[in-house]
């Protein structure tokens, strides 16, 4: 019987163990998509407790706690102490067997704090106190944790109206051995014309860009100025959060009419919303291509399903789910349109619904060329960044594309303790390859396999994103 969470955790064969320990484990981390707070990095935030570091903003844990019957006040409430929240999480952990949270929790305790005890109600106080004592030390600050995990670069997620002052301050003040922190362009609020606050957002965009926005083309001019501003401060990536892709035809005059209606607060038809989003994403794709950026599309989520809780505590609090969308033709039309114009830049597509894995893997093969792995199938995302989800994504990519050209893992997280997800991914990757060697499906060529693991863990991303 194997021991839980030992040095060979997840690694079932000798080949897998050799690949991980001799190749994957030593590679730095490029976390090219995350939701870290740039202010915490710039100010080298010192966390007041493990609860702030671990439970603050973590909707994965909140969902599990709610499912375990924990009252909301212990998840997002302001009237409960850090210890009370942590205690409720510790009570939930033994019920998370076979949920990735159980693996992540104990990987994080082990790799950050050197704690190998299992978290439970019986060990909660001891672990809480030990973590909090260590968090007082300078090396457990925001930057300290990033360096501890050998993070070389992170890309945050930033709205076009952001002034990037934390990025700018950090770039000027960071030490030579501090990670690089770059912004990433996330213009969802400018795309989501159906939202009630769209016109207010456009006014804000007008203010920060210095462009008077009356017509749709004015908004694009304003976005171009902000795009240039982001590029001047190291941005190389855009990211879009979509329910699905869009292929509804439109004319310039139709888009202008739709934009003017939205600015006047008039309701839009579903067709008008889809026409606008198709147009908007096309323009953004062209803008990214002109700047030689990489564009990312995260699609397939139905967000904020629980209206009562949305009204109470807001968005991104753990009330989202996998959606079902028939989007293959629209995705093809969108990529083909950009490609036909010569404006299809490096692209990563992430799906929240794994039933689309094979569709995406085959779709990307239609538009490859010019550089290795130009069009990428993004790693298992959100509900899929667990063992089964990552294996399914890599299997689809392997049989229908080139796994060797894959740019690998990202955290997509708000937590400075999420970097063990890279370790988890690398262990799963090595185990996948090791099992194939064990079955005689791959040759036991350590040179080729080792290079493949190092490339997927680090080198492919470093070459692909052109950060530095």
Helices, strands, pairings?
Elements: H1 14-24, E1 29-31, H2 38-42, H3 50-55, H4 59-67, H5 82-92, H6 100-113, H7 124-135, H8 142-148, E2 151-155, H9 165-173, E3 180-182, H10 188-191, H11 198-209, H12 216-232, E4 237-242, H13 252-263, H14 270-291, E5 294-299, E6 301-302, H15 307-313, E7 321-322, H16 328-340, E8 347-351, H17 357-365, E9 375-377, H18 387-400, H19 420-438, H20 446-465
Parallel strand pairs: 1-2, 2-3, 4-5, 5-8, 8-9
Antiparallel strand pairs: 6-7
Helix pairs in contact: 1-19, 1-20, 11-12, 13-14, 17-18, 18-19
Helix content: 40-55%
SSE series: HEHHHHHHHEHEHHHEHHEEHEHEHEHHH
What's the total number of strands? 9
From the spread of the alpha carbons, the general shape counts as: globular
Low-pLDDT runs of 5+ residues are none
**Rg measurement, Å:** 23 Å
How many angstroms separate the termini? 46 Å
% residues in beta strands: 5-15%
Total of helices: 20
Give the biggest beta sheet. 4 strands, parallel
Strand order in the largest sheet: 4-5-8-9
């Amino acid at each position: 019987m194997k021991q839980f969470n030992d040095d060979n955790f997840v690694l079932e064969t000798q080949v897998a163990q050799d690949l991980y320990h001799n190749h994957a484990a030593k590679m730095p981390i490029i976390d090219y998509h995350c939701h870290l707070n740039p202010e915490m990095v710039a100010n080298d935030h010192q966390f007041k407790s493990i609860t702030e570091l671990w439970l603050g903003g973590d909707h994965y844990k909140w969902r599990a706690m709610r499912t375990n019957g924990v009252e909301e006040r212990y998840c997002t409430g302001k009237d409960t102490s850090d210890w009370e929240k942590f205690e409720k999480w510790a009570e939930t952990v033994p019920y998370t067997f076979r949920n990735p949270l159980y693996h992540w929790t104990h990987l994080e305790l082990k790799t950050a704090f050197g704690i190998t005890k299992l978290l439970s109600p019986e060990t909660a106080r001891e672990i809480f106190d030990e973590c909090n004592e260590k968090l007082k030390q300078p090396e457990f600050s925001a930057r300290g944790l990033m360096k501890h995990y050998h993070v070389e670069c992170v890309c945050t997620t930033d709205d076009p109206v952001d002034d990037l002052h934390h990025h700018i301050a950090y770039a000027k003040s960071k030490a030579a051995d501090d990670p690089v922190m770059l912004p990433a362009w996330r213009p969802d609020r400018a795309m989501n014309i159906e939202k009630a606050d769209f016109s207010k957002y456009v006014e804000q965009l007008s203010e920060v860009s210095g462009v008077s926005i009356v017509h749709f083309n004015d908004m694009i001019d304003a976005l171009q100025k902000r795009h240039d501003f982001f590029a001047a401060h190291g941005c190389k990536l855009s990211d879009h959060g979509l329910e699905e892709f869009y292929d509804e035809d439109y004319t310039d005059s139709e888009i202008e009419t739709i934009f003017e209606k939205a600015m006047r607060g008039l309701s839009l038809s579903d067709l008008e919303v889809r026409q606008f989003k198709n147009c908007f994403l096309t323009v953004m794709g062209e803008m990214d291509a002109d700047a030689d950026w990489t564009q990312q599309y995260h699609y397939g989520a139905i967000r904020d399903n629980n209206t009562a809780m949305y009204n109470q505590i807001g968005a991104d609090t753990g009330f989202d789910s996998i959606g079902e969308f028939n989007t293959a033709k629209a995705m093809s039309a969108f990529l083909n349109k950009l490609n036909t114009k010569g404006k299809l830049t490096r692209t990563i597509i992430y799906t929240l619904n794994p039933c689309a894995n094979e569709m995406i893997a085959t779709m990307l093969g239609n538009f490859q060329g010019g550089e290795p792995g130009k069009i990428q199938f993004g790693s298992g995302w959100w509900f899929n960044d667990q063992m089964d989800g990552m294996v399914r994504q890599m299997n689809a990519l392997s049989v229908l594309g080139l796994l060797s050209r894959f740019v690998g893992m990202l955290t997509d997280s708000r937590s400075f303790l999420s970097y063990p997800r890279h370790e988890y991914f690398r262990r799963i990757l090595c185990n996948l390859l090791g099992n194939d060697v064990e079955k005689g499906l791959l040759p036991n060529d350590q040179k080729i396999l080792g290079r493949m693991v190092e490339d997927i863990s680090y080198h492919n991303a470093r070459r692909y994103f052109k950060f530095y």
